[in-house]
Write a structure and sequence with these properties.
Layout: H1 2-9, H2 14-31, H3 38-45, H4 49-56, H5 59-69, H6 83-91, H7 96-113, H8 117-145, H9 158-173, H10 179-193
Helix pairs in contact: 2-3, 2-5, 5-8, 6-10, 9-10
Length: 200
C-alpha cells in the first residue's frame, strides 16, 4: 500500500507540491479549518478535486501535510554536545515570524480537532509522532552523555513542557512566542525540571 501511495504522489513534482501546500495554508489562514473545503483548494490551485483526494485522501491529511511541509525536522542533524545547546538549536530553526505564523495556525487547528477525529488522527501521525521521535533522539543523547538521569520523572513530559511554552504565551500574555521567550523558558523551566542547572 505504501508503494502504491508513493507511486501516486510521484506524479506531482516537489515544486507543484510546495505550491499546493502554500495555497492550503493561505486558505487555512483566511477561512479556518472548518470552512476550508477541497473544492476551494481545487479552485485555488487549479487542480481537480479527484486528484487531491487521490494524492492526499482527504482534508485532514492534506492540511497536516501542508503544515508539516513548512516545519523543520526536529532533531535531524542537531547535536551540539549538550542538551541546552540542542534545545536552543531546535528553537532557532524557525525565526520569530515563522514561529508566530505556525503558532496561529496551530491554535486554529487545536479548536477544530475537538470536532474532528480525522484531524486528530492526522495531527498525531503527521506532527506529534515525528516531533516525539526527534525529541527522544535529543534526550537519549543527553542521557548517554550523563547529562540527564534516565529515571528523571520530567523526561516523560518534555514534549508537553515544550508545547506548553508555545501555547500559553499567546493565551496568558496575549502575544506570540518568540525565540528569546522560548529560550528563556527552556533555561528557567525545562532544563531545571530535568536536573540541569538554570545557568550554564
Amino acid at each position: 500500500m505504501t508503494e502504491v501511495a508513493t507511486a501516486r504522489r510521484s506524479r506531482i513534482t516537489p515544486e507543484r507540491e510546495a505550491e499546493l501546500y502554500a495555497a492550503v495554508l493561505d486558505l487555512l489562514r483566511e477561512v479556518g479549518y472548518d470552512a476550508l473545503t477541497m473544492d476551494a483548494v481545487a479552485a485555488r490551485t487549479r487542480s481537480s478535486k479527484a486528484t487531491l483526494y487521490r494524492q492526499w485522501g482527504g482534508k485532514a491529511d492534506l492540511v497536516m501535510k501542508a503544515i508539516k511541509h513548512n516545519k523543520p525536522d526536529h532533531g535531524e542533524g542537531i547535536d551540539t554536545g549538550s542538551l541546552r545547546g540542542d534545545l536552543h538549536a531546535l528553537i532557532l530553526l524557525e525565526d520569530d515570524c515563522t514561529i508566530e505564523q505556525n503558532s496561529a495556525l496551530m491554535r486554529g487547528i487545536a479548536m477544530a480537532m475537538h470536532n474532528s477525529a480525522d484531524l486528530r488522527r492526522a495531527f498525531r501521525a503527521q506532527l506529534v509522532e515525528p516531533e516525539m521521535a526527534g525529541f527522544h533522539q535529543v534526550i537519549q543523547r543527553a542521557v548517554d552523555r550523563g547529562e540527564v538521569r534516565a529515571d528523571r520523572p520530567a523526561l516523560e513530559f518534555l514534549l508537553h513542557m515544550m508545547i506548553g511554552g508555545f501555547a500559553t504565551r499567546a493565551l496568558l500574555d496575549d502575544q506570540p512566542p518568540t525565540q528569546a521567550f522560548l529560550i528563556s523558558y527552556i533555561d528557567a523551566v525545562v532544563l531545571p525540571a530535568l536536573g540541569i542547572p538554570a545557568t550554564p
